[in-house]
Design brief:
Elements (H helix, E strand, L loop, with lengths): L14 H4 L11 H8 L11 E6 L18 H4 L4 E2 L8 E2 L3 H5 L4 E7 L6 H10 L16 H8 L10 E3 L19 E2 L30 H15 L7 H11 L1 H7 L6 H7 L3 H15 L3 E5 L21 H25 L6 E6 L3 E2 L6 E2 L6 E2 L4 E2 L3 E7 L7 E2 L1 E2 L6 E3 L4 H11 L7 E3 L5 E3 L12
Parallel strand pairs: 1-7, 1-8, 4-14, 5-6, 5-7
Antiparallel strand pairs: 2-3, 4-13, 8-13, 9-12, 10-11, 15-16, 17-18
Helix pairs in contact: 2-8, 9-11, 10-11, 11-12
Length: 456
């Protein structure tokens, strides 16, 4: 068990990282990025996509997908499981919409690793390697989104190949793959009435800089008028031409314009950050984006819900669950059902996870804000639950199990590398392929791991 802690600020952003010069933040022009990417090895052009819903902070498996009603109260807690459309696949009572679509997802209950802090846990989970500096918020190894970005860089369908709502997750990064493997960032609230996408900086020969306060769609229109007026496209090299083509493509324009969605569809997902991020992710993969990461932290509703790091000092475990899980339930169930209804379930794989689970035993402490003793759970990488949907894979199953108190993986023990191998295989990426690290050594994408048999 981890020892009680006095405070846990949870995953934090590091200002210096935001100043390093990434897409949508003003350092590299898109033309520069494409030029860098042209120097590296191309990957398969197979039309498959992954949506990674990242629950930063670490969700409790004991309050979501692996409840233990028979365990002692200080382990099992207050919430109860409910039956779903799949016999034997129970979920938390606060996830009734999940229960209706359970035949369209699979729960993996037996993944574990050895890093119980946010940065180290995220780096371990997303890269497949033990972090060299577990407390460093920047991964020392490339994480899956950046690997996909690099391996799919030759794929040009008019939209970015890797999109995320932040430059990286806390503990993630591109390491020796370089800045050009980082995502195109859409970090504004898709539920806002004035939602727009920050512009990419471009070559000075066309335009020194687009005002970040102008929406992406207006930027498209402005750039197209500029081109028509001064003929500058002909003077640009092929990289800036491709960058401009991406920015002005109808496919990109349509994909990012979430206002085109039927209001009923938007309501179905939920008019909050989480719901609209899930909907935007569906629009992006439908348009051809290969890898989308959407972090679901503060959903943008009343109640002060933050990330999933629910120690007792940070909040009341069950008050938080009752506020958080219905919002999460709506967004995830709508995404899964929508992908299936649109016939995208073979093209798109959805993965819902955080960096680890929570301690099987409840750790009551005095809340920093409440000033009273309240329940919470601390970090726990010994057991966690992961939801997987689509990808043409067998759904409506439970893979693995944990001990009776939810402490450790028991049957079919797996690790993050096995899930990563399944994800790479789905994208037709050879996870044995090598990259060259900072020291000049060849480094395979995954040092070990094999696809999960039940997902074949």
């Amino acid at each position: 068990m981890t020892r009680p802690i006095a405070v846990c600020p949870g995953p934090q952003s590091r200002r210096s990282f935001l100043q390093a010069g990434f897409l949508a933040l003003g350092g590299l022009s898109l033309g520069d990025v494409l030029r860098l990417r042209a120097e590296t090895k191309a990957g398969s052009d197979q039309d498959t996509s992954i949506i990674l819903i990242w629950l930063q902070g670490g969700p409790s498996h004991m309050e979501t997908y692996d409840l233990k009603p028979e365990a002692p109260r200080d382990y099992g807690g207050e919430l109860q499981p409910i039956r779903t459309s799949v016999p034997g696949l129970d979920v938390c009572e606060l996830l009734p919409l999940h229960a209706r679509v359970a035949d369209k997802f699979t729960i993996i209950r037996s993944i574990s690793h050895g890093f119980a802090n946010h940065a180290g846990g995220a780096g371990r989970f997303l890269s497949g390697r033990n972090p060299l500096r577990p407390l460093d918020p920047v991964s020392q190894f490339p994480t899956i989104g950046t690997v996909v970005s690099r391996m799919k860089e030759s794929r040009d369908v008019g939209v970015p190949n890797y999109v995320a709502n932040d430059t990286r997750v806390y503990g993630g990064g591109s390491s020796y793959l370089g800045e050009s493997a980082l995502p195109f960032v859409v970090n504004r609230d898709p539920n806002a009435a004035n939602f727009s996408v920050p512009n990419l900086s471009m070559s000075g020969r066309l335009k020194d800089r687009l005002d970040d306060r102008v929406t992406l769609l207006n930027s498209f229109d402005t750039l197209q008028r500029d081109i028509d007026r001064n003929g500058s496209l002909a003077a640009m090299d092929k990289f800036n031409e491709r960058a401009l083509s991406l920015l002005t493509s109808d496919r990109a324009k349509q994909a990012f314009d979430i206002s085109q969605e039927d209001p009923k569809t938007r309501e179905r997902y939920g008019r909050h950050k989480w719901g609209q991020r899930a909907l935007l992710a569906r629009r992006l993969v439908e348009a051809g984006v290969t890898f989308v990461t959407m972090q679901m932290q503060n959903p943008g509703v009343a109640g002060g819900i933050g990330n999933w790091d629910i120690h007792a000092v940070n909040g009341h475990l069950y008050d938080d669950a009752r506020a958080r899980l219905p919002i999460f339930d709506q967004a995830i169930a709508a995404l899964i059902e929508d992908l299936y209804q649109r016939g995208l379930d073979r093209k798109v794989m959805v993965v819902v996870t955080g960096e680890f689970g929570r301690t099987p035993r409840i750790n009551p402490q005095k809340g920093t804000r409440s000033g009273i003793i309240q329940p919470g759970r601390d970090h726990w990488p010994g057991a966690m639950s992961v939801l997987v949907s689509g990808g043409g894979m067998p759904m409506g199953q439970v893979i693995g199990s944990t001990t009776s108190n939810g402490a450790y993986a028991k049957d079919n023990k797996l690790e993050p590398n096995d899930l990563l191998a399944s994800m790479y295989r789905f994208l037709d990426i050879d996870y044995h392929a090598d990259f060259i690290d900072h020291t000049g050594r060849p480094m395979p994408i995954l040092p070990h791991g094999r696809p999960i048999a039940e997902l074949t």
